[in-house]
Structure formats: structure tokens, C-alpha cells
Automatic annotation (TrEMBL):
One of its GO terms (biological process) is response to oxidative stress. Residues 26-148 form the MsrB domain. It is an enzyme of class 1 (oxidoreductase). PANTHER family: METHIONINE SULFOXIDE REDUCTASE, METHIONINE-R-SULFOXIDE REDUCTASE B1. It comes from Hymenobacter chitinivorans DSM 11115. The keyword Zinc does not apply. GO terms for molecular function: peptide-methionine (R)-S-oxide reductase activity. It holds the Pfam family SelR. This is peptide-methionine (R)-S-oxide reductase.
Length: 151
């Protein structure tokens, strides 16, 4: 189980190695992704709160990166956080996510990216539920829900 101190350590000293890397050019990403997915995943934008696909969806399954289809979150870790975006307590694996300090918009946050393709997912905050206290606040446009929860 990851804790806030683990997140800060990764952001400061280096992230875990991904299981696989996916590298494409901007035109290749643009051809593969919808315009909204491209804005979020490749240009680091944020979708509008509450008006997104997975904000109020709690169906079982695994949430994968919309860019490279790497498994990111299991539906069993999703919870209602009143944030306007899907919120999760833990990634499916330690090496699924990379962490980066983000001081845009005069805020100090930790950005989360898919560790496989580097796509922007959202941010993680230390105000989630026990036991780890993490809230991964993720853009729906960066996710695809598939089948059954990860084993």
C-alpha cells in the first residue's frame, strides 16, 4: 500500500520502472486519441468537473490508460470524493503511476501520469480515506474501464 511519504519520495528521487514503455509522436497520439483525450493526456489539461464519464460510475472493472491501455486502477479502490472527478485510493501496482511535482496555477500539487506512456492522468492528494489517506483525482478522459477488476 502506497502512502503519502512514498508519493513524495517518488516525485523527488525517481519513479519506479514501468512494466513497459509506449512512445509515440504527437501526430501518432493525435491520430489515436479523441481530441478531448489528447488535450488531457498529452497537453495536461483538465476536463470539467462532474460532467465526465466516470465521476458517478461505480461498475466493476479495471481502469486502464486511454492512451496505452496499461492497467492503472481497480474499481474496488474507487470512491465518491465529491471532487467532480473519479477518485481512487490506490493504483493497481506500484509501477503503474509516475509522480511529478506540479506548481502550475500557483498551487503545489503532485501530478500523476501513466508510467507506461507518460500521459497526464490528474493529481494525488493526502486527503483520502484511511488507511493510506490518498486521493487520486483522475480525469475520465484519461481512462477506459474494461471488464472485470484486476486480479
Amino acid at each position: 500500500m502506497l502512502r503519502w511519504i512514498d508519493i513524495l519520495t517518488f516525485a523527488k528521487y525517481g519513479n519506479p520502472e514501468p512494466l513497459r514503455r509506449v512512445e509515440k509522436t504527437a501526430p501518432e497520439w493525435a491520430a489515436q486519441l479523441t481530441p478531448a483525450q489528447f488535450r488531457v493526456l498529452r497537453e495536461h489539461h483538465t476536463e470539467p468537473p462532474y460532467r465526465n464519464a466516470y465521476c458517478r460510475s461505480y461498475e466493476p472493472g479495471c481502469y486502464e490508460c486511454a492512451g496505452c491501455h496499461s492497467p492503472l486502477f481497480d474499481s474496488s479502490t474507487k470512491y465518491y470524493a465529491i471532487s467532480g472527478w473519479p477518485s481512487f485510493t490506490q493504483p493497481v501496482a506500484r509501477q503503474a503511476i509516475s509522480y511529478h511535482f506540479d506548481d502550475t496555477y500557483n498551487m503545489q500539487r503532485v501530478e500523476v501520469r501513466c508510467n507506461g506512456c507518460g500521459g497526464h492522468l490528474g493529481h494525488v492528494f493526502p486527503d483520502g480515506p484511511a488507511p493510506a489517506g490518498l486521493r487520486y483525482c483522475i480525469n475520465s478522459e484519461s481512462l477506459v474501464r474494461v471488464g472485470e477488476p484486476a486480479a
